[in-house]
Design brief:
- By secondary structure, the chain is an all-alpha fold.
- It contains six helices and no strands.
- The mean pLDDT is 84.
């Protein structure tokens, strides 16, 4: 049952994004920023953690989960190190995910021979 819930929540987030793309003039990059910022905002007001525990991977995998990770990293670093944590926390919390995305994208570019559109 947990897999079904995660699938439905992840699908609902994707459907909402598709509706934004189809019915607004927002570009995909701006929609991604909205998702990351909404995850950080929901985390800041204390809503994201209970939602994440209820929804599971359906809430943690999309970009709003990345925003939550960034916020939690900054919050922890500020609590431990003070003002400098504002600058360090997000990098510390998300470095592994960002590094993995860059490495796997680079490997995929060797395999699939991408071409720039222009």
């Amino acid at each position: 049952m947990d897999y079904l819930k995660a699938f439905l929540i992840g699908g609902a987030i994707c459907a909402a994004v598709q509706i934004l793309m189809d019915n607004t003039k927002l570009m995909p990059g701006r929609i991604m920023v909205i998702l990351v910022c909404s995850g950080a905002l929901l985390s800041a007001v204390g809503i994201y953690k209970p939602f994440s525990e209820w929804a599971g991977a359906g809430a943690n995998v999309p970009l709003c989960g990345f925003g939550n990770s960034l916020f939690q990293g900054v919050k922890k670093a500020v609590d431990e190190e003070g003002f400098i944590g504002i600058f360090k926390g997000g990098f510390t919390a998300s470095a592994v995910g960002i590094s993995a995305a860059l490495i796997f994208s680079y490997i995929a570019s060797w395999i699939f021979n991408p071409k720039m559109k222009g």
